[in-house]
């Protein structure tokens, strides 16, 4: 590990990763990895967590290539004494960066930051999640065959080894995972004053106002909640609505779930499984909250938990104490919008916040009076499809942002530069001591 770190540090110091042609060549090699290994990636991810059909998504990330900014510096305004000089902001790489990924989208959450880090000219160490063993193995074995080994490395590590890895000095750490581990990462980074991006999670509220199209709401919420069996950081975690809306939503949610996954979701090729036994047991324990209105079936052997809706859940119930990260949707009844807003504001700031209402004023008011990493009115998850929008959390849900051009910016140091002209020394006289009254303008 130590040797690998020095190898990357040495490569960084040669300046090898800086030329634009080099970065493009490495990104193209990464593109070949995705093309040539597509089948292996799909197999590994489905072995790891019964990923369902049609998820060969990482390719799309390569479109980021177009965001490479060939201009190495942007010239800026000057003052009177620097008129003959060159003042510019240079987009510099940070150096050797570390990317740590979670298991829930094990390829996407590893490679999208990697693309940004390469594009920005860094040397990179990536650490996939040890939970998704097959994907970890595939990445560790195959990716180094495509990328320059002097500058990019894959580390396979569990908690203990990652703790050791974090003792090293990096120039940037990009972490995606839980808020608990986020704190550990930030503490380790603080020892070296290393800047960090923390892409974390939490409970994403979804307020459904009385004035809305129930069937469309049900489909859009059910899709967001049950996609990847609820193991999505921006999934709507719970619904806040009136007791009347809860009654109306229940049959509509049942209909949407049956429409998507058939009468027995266990047999649906489009419904995923829980990633591991530990996670399965944790989620299963949350089924005791409120009243099971839809679903509730489990099969430990298969790590299957049916798409489930819990009615009349209380704020003090277990399902409301932690991020669910599974196919369970609790409904918490509130009297009105004001109560929903108070409920949201009394809790840690979420990564995503959802509001459904036919009345634009309601959507705007909830947006205005709350705070969250991202926001989507009248749908779930969809804001993340826009690479023109920065993606990231606030407070407990994270620090920093990426996606599209923002990924490139995240891994880029904006270096302030002034290149002075050596002539016209007379202009400088007033700033040199000794200071007399004339120099001080008295
Ligand atoms: P996790 O925090 O347990 O693990 C994430 C990574 O950290 C893994 O690579 C793991 O090996 C490493 N890690 C775990 N414990 C560590 C320790 N003590 N020291 C150092 N490294 C350690 O998260 P997870 O279970 O893999 O993923 C689920 C969480 O990630 C959820 O909270 C989810 O909301 C969040 N998430 C956030 C985003 C986002 O973009 N904001 C995306 C996906 C998942």
TrEMBL record:
Molecular-function annotations in GO: 3-chloroallyl aldehyde dehydrogenase activity; aldehyde dehydrogenase (NAD+) activity
BP term (GO), one: aldehyde metabolic process
Alphabetical keyword list: NAD, Oxidoreductase
Keyword Nucleus: no
InterPro entries membership: Ald_DH/histidinol_DH, Ald_DH_C, Ald_DH_CS_CYS, Ald_DH_CS_GLU, Ald_DH_N, Aldehyde_DH_dom, Aldehyde_DH_NAD(P)
Protein name: Aldehyde dehydrogenase
Family in the record: Belongs to the aldehyde dehydrogenase family.
SUPFAM superfamilies: ALDH-like
Domain Aldehyde dehydrogenase: 16-415
Pfam family, one: Aldedh
Residue positions of the active site: 199, 233
GO cellular component: cytoplasm
Keyword 4Fe-4S on entry: no
Species in which this protein is naturally found: Nothoprocta perdicaria (Chilean tinamou)
